[in-house]
Specification:
This protein has 156 residues and is an alpha+beta fold. Helix content is 17%, strand content 37%.
Length: 156
């Protein structure tokens, strides 16, 4: 059955993702007072490295509850984003961040191999995020170096 609703544009989908990320940076509350969870469809999927796949708002809430206490602050550098739009519900954002994890601060490029770079693949339909898959190194403070010979100082 045809929808009476106008098609969502790439710019509108980008605006939904940006509003969600700004809410995330603001401790889970959007500039309009909405909870970060309100940006997601009830049956949305969210993938986060080292956590796994959350299905539905209750599991996404649990993921955020697990992640939240580990983060003292995060700032997405919206000016740095590279967007890949498809003219469909799918889009991707590649960008940088800085902030403070409970294990210590991070800033993209300090060191160059450290945290702060990410790519998120999103599906946005009806002004809600249906799917968010985040690809990044969740070792924000850069402490996981012993397992990598090029980082542990033993390689000459």
């Amino acid at each position: 059955m045809p929808s009476n609703q106008a098609a969502t544009t790439d710019e509108q989908r980008k605006a939904v993702v940006l509003a969600y990320l700004k809410a995330f940076d603001n401790g889970g509350t959007g500039t309009d007072g909405r909870s970060v969870l309100d940006f997601f469809a009830q049956d949305a999927q969210f993938f986060y490295p080292k956590w796994g796949l959350a299905k539905g708002r209750p599991e996404i809430s649990r993921l955020f509850d697990d992640l939240g206490p580990t983060m003292k602050s995060i700032t997405h550098h919206f000016w740095s984003f590279n967007w890949l739009t498809t003219g469909t519900d799918l889009l991707a954002a590649e960008g940088t961040t800085h902030g403070e994890h409970h294990d210590g601060p991070w800033h993209v490029g300090l060191p160059e191999w450290g945290a702060g770079r990410f790519c998120g693949v999103f599906e946005v339909r009806d002004d809600l995020i249906q799917r968010a898959f985040i690809y990044m190194d969740p070792d924000y403070a850069g402490q996981d170096t012993a397992r990598y010979p090029w980082l542990d100082g033993t390689r000459h």
